[in-house]
Write a structure and sequence with these properties.
The chain has 12 helices and 14 strands. By secondary structure, the chain is of the alpha+beta class. The radius of gyration is 22 Å and the shape is elongated.
Length: about 350
């Protein structure tokens, strides 16, 4: 395996990158070339202003067989650490990229390459937001033991999801009886209200900018999200939403009450799943339960349109479990290289 280091984002890799991703056991919109390119351009929406790219590829007989999207950043003691692109706040699922038949050799070779003269000295390698089901994790343990690295894995966050049966009524029958009645009652109340209530998904590119403005306004009604949405983060969000629209995977949905936007969900419709990325709410319309009603419509749509999962991604908010979600987790793998002899 031949390893190559890139310190600038490689424009020519886009097609090969996404073709390799299609072979990987873990696929997520946050691992797409276009998403991580935006993440790097904005340094994660301003999360990592002092970062240097360490994007490593591996080829075998000219074929791209592995990608380690990494970067290095200084820490308080004056040394450096390496993290995976996408860390930490805005990318829910991350991983190394390698096809199953190459992943073991790729990970072993990667640990060797990280200790070569091509890589600046570093104290730790931190791989954030790995799904707990990722084949990368046991292979990292094996390679670390062989190469003398220390490794620890920490459970970071709940990532609840719903397996969809493909039928709305079947889905409802599978959740708690009280919750089932509550969803039906709130959706029926909205549909029968004297004030017109409607929901829609943005499909018109000519209105996308104004719809993004509306979505960000709804997000800012939450004080924590308003703090989160610094100018650099807003720029990142705009670029991500536009890119998802261009890639055909955007599901930006709004619920309107009397023509006023009352709730919104930003999701990705990707690889036959709905990935719920963020949301916003106007509490002026709280009597209509707009967040729950819109979520009900989105789940109904996902069932009726053959999506296999509805992934709430990171966060253990209670409402996710009320809608029938079950847990999985994302973890952080920290690796410490052996001391130089």
């Amino acid at each position: 395996m031949n390893f190559t280091l890139y310190t600038q984002f490689p424009e020519h890799l886009a097609a090969e990158w996404d073709a390799l991703l299609r072979k990987c056991p873990i696929q997520a919109p946050f691992l797409e070339y276009s998403y991580l390119k935006i993440w790097w351009q904005t340094r994660g929406g301003g999360e990592w202003p002092d970062a240097r790219l360490l994007l490593i590829t591996a080829r075998q007989e000219g074929e791209l067989v592995g990608i380690a999207p990494l970067f290095t950043t200084p820490i308080a003691d004056g040394s450096n650490r390496i993290l995976n692109l996408g860390s930490i706040e805005v990318s829910d699922y991350l991983d190394l990229l390698a096809a199953p038949e190459h992943v073991e050799e790729f990970i072993t070779g990667l640990l060797d390459f990280l200790r070569s003269k091509a890589i600046p000295a570093f104290k730790t390698l931190n791989l954030y937001n790995l799904p707990d089901s990722s084949p990368t994790l046991p292979l990292l343990h094996t390679a670390a033991a062989t190469k003398g690295w220390q490794i620890s894995v920490e459970k970071l966050q709940h990532s609840p999801f719903i397996r969809l049966p493909g039928d709305w009524e079947t889905y409802l029958e599978g959740i708690d009886k009280k919750q089932r009645h509550e969803i039906r009652r709130k959706m029926r109340r909205a549909e029968e209200a004297d004030t017109p209530v409607r929901w829609y998904v943005v499909t018109d590119g000519s209105t996308l900018d104004s719809e993004i403005d509306s979505f960000l306004r709804l997000m800012k009604n939450d004080s924590d999200k308003e703090t989160f949405l610094k100018p650099a983060m807003q720029d990142f969000m705009r670029l991500v939403i536009q890119n998802a629209f261009d890639e055909g995977i955007l599901q930006l949905a709004f619920l309107e009450v009397a023509g006023q936007k009352a709730a919104a969900y930003l999701s990705f419709d990707y690889q036959n799943r709905i990935w719920v990325y963020n949301s916003g709410l106007d509490r002026e319309f709280q009597s209509y339960s707009p967040g729950w009603v819109l979520l009900g419509y989105l789940l109904q749509w996902a069932n009726e349109n053959g999506r296999s999962e509805f992934d709430f991604m990171r966060g253990e908010e209670e409402y996710k479990y009320r809608f029938g979600a079950v847990d999985r987790f994302v973890v952080r793998a920290e690796l410490i290289p052996p001391a130089d002899e």
